Amino acid sequence: MSETQPAKPAAPRRDHSRIQHGDTVNDPYSWLKDPEDPQTRDYLNAENAYAESRTAHLAGLRKAIFGEIKDRTQETDLSVPVRDGGWWYYGRTEEGKQYAIQCRLKAAGDTPPEIEAGAAVEGEEVLVDGNALAEGHDFFSLGIYDVSPDGNLLAFAVNYSGDERFTLRFKDLRTGEVFADEIAGVFYGGAWSADGSVFFYTKVDDAWRPHQVWRHVLGETEDVLVYQEDDERFRTGIGLTRSKGYLVVYSGSSTTTEYRYLDADDPTGEFTVFGNGREQGVEVVIDHQGDRFWVLHNKDAENFALGWTPVEDTTRFHEVIPHDEAVRLESVEAFAGHAVVSLRRAGLPRVALLDAEGRLTEIAFDEPLYDVGLGQNPDYDSRQLRIGYGSLVTPPSVYDYDIDTAELHLRKRTAVLGEFDPADYAQYREWATAADGTRIPISIVAKAGVEPDGTAPCLLYGYGSYEHSIDPYFSIARLSLLDRGVVFAIAHVRGGGEMGRQWYEQGKLLHKKHTFTDFVDSADHLVKAGWAAPDRIVARGGSAGGLLMGAVANLAPERFAGILADVPFVDALNTILDPTMPLTVGEWEEWGNPLESAEVYEYMKSYSPYENVTSVRYPSILAVTSLNDIRVGFHEPAKWIAKLRHESPESDVLLKTEMEAGHGGRSGRYDAWEEEAFNLAWVLDKLGAA
Fold first, then answer.
1. Strands, DSSP E only, in 435-575?
2. pTM of this prediction?
3. Is the pLDDT of residue 4 over 70?
4. Looking at the annotation, which residues are catalytic?
5. Which of the four CATH numbers 3.90.79.10, 1.25.40.10, 2.130.10.120, 3.40.50.2000 does domain 294-415 have?
6. Which of 75, 486, 612, 619 has the maximum number of C-beta atoms within 10 A of its C-beta?
C-alpha cells in the first residue's frame, strides 16, 4: 500500500455482552461510544483519511459542484424585512462571510422598505453579527435571538462546539452595551416578560432533555426555577403567545402535551395549568386571542379538532371545526382580528384563514406540488399575513397575503444566479403501491426533457419518522444533480406526516417496518414507471432517515447502487436500551421500550441496522457524522461502518466524521457547501454520472 493510499481501517474488536430478555449479544464495537478513548479518535481519523483517499479522484468534481453552488447563490443578500412594533427586522449576508448579520431599521409605513443588497443602509442597527461572534472558532451557532417586546433589549445565546448547550447574554439595543449577565448551559428558546425586565429560559439535564424553565431578572445573580419536568419522557420550553399577552410553559412527549400560562405583565406570578391538565395520549396546541384561547386537540379526533376556551375558564371547550379524516389540522395562530390554521390535505401542506363563522378558506397556489407555511408574523394587529412558499422547481418565495382583499403580494423570490429558468425543470407526482395495498406518494423533479424511459440515474430521498413531513422543496445544490441528468425523488413513506396522523401511526412502534418497505416499494415503482434505471438508484436519508438507510441496506441491498447516510440513527436498539443516553427515554413513545417489553426488543432487533449486518455484498455506503452530535451519537455510524467492513470486507463502505460540528454538520455556509459538494460528488460517482 502506497503512502498516499491509507490502509482500509479495521476497528479493534473488544468483547462486550448485552443481555436482555434472556438474549445475549456480543457487541465488539461498543467501546466506540467513548470519545475520550484515544483509540476512538485514532479510528475516526483513520476513517477520514481512508475516505479522503478513496474519493480523491472526485476532487475536481467536488470543486466544480462547490463552484456551481457558489455561483448560483447571491452571496450578498438580505431577507424580507419583518415588522415588529416600531422596527423592521431583517437578516443579511455578505460575500465571503460565513454567517448572517441580524439588523433592524426604524419603521416608516406598513410596506416593507426596499433595501438594496450590499448597499449601505442609512439608519441600520446591527443587532448580531454572526461573523464577529464566530471569529476564532471552527464552529458557531446562534441558539437564541429574541428582542424584548418594547424593542430595547436583546437576548442572544451562542455555542462553539455543536453540542447545543448555549451561553446566554443580554444587550441594550439603545446603547450597544452587552450586560455582565451571563448564563451557561441554556437550551434553545426563551421568552421576555411584557416590560422586558425578566427573561425566561430553559436548561437541559444530563440526557440533554430540556427539563427546567428558569426566570432571570436582569442585573440579578440568583435566577429562580419556575418549572421542572420530572417525567423523563417529556421535554419542556417557554414562549409568548402571539398577542404577547401570556407566557406559556410547554411540556410534551411524543403523544401528550400540557400547558401552563401566566399574564406576561406579571412575570413573578404563578403559572396556571391550562384546561384539564395532562392527559396521556392527548396533544394540544394553543394560542391567545382577546378573551379566548384557540385550541387544537386530538382527544377522540385523530387528525385534530379546533375550538376555543374562555380565558377565565380554560376547561370549557367550544368546538368550531370537527375532526375530518381527510384533513390533518397542524397548528393555529391568532391575530387581533382573525386566526390562521396550518393544515395538511391530499399529501400537501396548506394555509387557511378562519372566519367568524368557523369556515376555513385555503390560500390557493397554482403548482401541483409545493411547500408552504407561515413565515414570521410578530405583528399581532397586522392585516398582512407573511407566507413562505416554494416547490421542487420554484425557489423559496416570500408572500404577503392581504386579509382584506385576498391578494397575494410577492415580496421576494430567492435569486438563483446564472442561466437558471424554472421552465427548464419539471415536477411530477407518482404513487407506489405497498405490499398491503397502501398508496405511497412520491414527488419527482427532473430536467425538462428527461423522459421516463428507464435509463436515468436517480437519487431517492426518504425520512419517515416523528410525523415529520418532507414536502417538495427547492434546493440550489440539487441543480448540480438535475443538470447532469439525475432524477431526484422524495418517497413520502409512512412514519412521516404527509398523509395525516394515521400515516404516522402506521410507521412507528410495532409498525415501523412499513417505513422501510414503503421506501423499497417506492424504488421499485420508480423503476417500473421508467423514472430510474434499475442499477442506477442511490438512496439518501439523515438522522432517523439514516435509520431508514441502514434498514434498506439490509432489506434490499441489491436495489441500490449506493446509500448516503447523514448522521444516521443506525444503532437504534442499543441506544433505545440505554436510558442514560441523550434523549433516549423520550424516544420510547416513538419506538417502544425494549427494556420493559420483550416484544419491542425482538421487533427492534429485527430491523435495527447495526444488529442485522451480514456478509452479503452491500451497495457502496457513505456515512457522514459529527463528533459533537448529541441527537445521534457519532458512535452509531462508526460502529455500523466497522461492522460492515468486518462482516462484508468486499463491500465499499466509507465513514466521514466532522471533528468540530454537531447534528447539522459544519456551521458556516461556505463550509456547508463544501460538505454538500463532497456528498453530491460521491452520489454522482455511484450513479455513473460523474
1. 439-447, 458-462, 487-491, 537-542, 562-566
2. 0.95
3. no
4. 543, 629, 663
5. 2.130.10.120
6. 486
